[in-house]
Predict the structure.
Amino acid sequence: MVSASVAALISITLDVDLLDSTVLVMPLYILLLIFIVPNYYACRGLPIRETPWLVLLGSHLLILGVGTGMWMLAGEAYSRLLDSFVEQARWVSIFERSLYINLSIVIIQFEIVALIHYLYLALEATKNLQQAALKQKLLISQAELQTLKATVHPHFLFNSLNTLSNITLSTPEAAHRFCLLIAEFLRYSVAYSKKNSAALSEELEHIQNYLGIERERFGDRLETSFEIDDSLLETKVPPLILFPVVENAIKHGIDSCIEGGLLAIVVREQEGSLVFEVRNPVDELGRKLKGTGHGLASVKQRLKTRHGEKALLKVERDNGTFIAKIYLPLSNEEEVLPE
């Protein structure tokens, strides 16, 4: 369509035969498609938002100059070839007289094709972003599911029911309080596993319920210490983010020590981050419980998918003490997951 339009334009403007201009122009504009191909790779290799304007402009001008020059040489050779088959040479004259018209159209075509390529690449990038957002949402959902599974782990329920049966025989009033703790614990676990965020005060209350349940099982072997910055209580955090760390401290720390020990939880602000610190004793020679490894791993995955490099989980040992620290970007805004 372009070549036919150009042939008609040349025929009218230069007052030449339409057939002659068509024979000359049609193959040359089909050849132009080949010279335009490098434009695509230039656009892909030189993203608009990431490339300095001088580099971008210079690169496209270079491609345009080389492509146009090659096209002009091909047009000159083709017009001479056509003239060699006839007695009255005319195509070289038509090509030279229409050179400015052709150059203008060729340059416009180059720029239009470059814009089309950039539009295509922008649409492709948007599609990739949407796919990445969906993948992130899936990873978050999987991590949340793993957390919920860890929260209502059958082993924990079995221990709680055994403890409840023992309490029921000795102190019915304590059994009533114990049932309320379990009910509140499970209610929070199920309700907040479906939410994007929770207040820090709600998370700490959930941890208190869990420790209340475990305290009935461990008795005096479990001591707890809380050091909380009250100004952070309304801060929004991922729900159930602290529970796997505390559960790990009970299962692999307190339970491994014959005499139990102190479980210390510290929540503070540090350099623009919300820091959870959980400390528990570890008896290297004590009883070891085999774990699945999902607890702390799920916390790391959730932190990565929600906050990227802005959040992390660090663990270390120091003279018989296991220390786990969670760093979260400090924010009071409701976190919104990608739809």
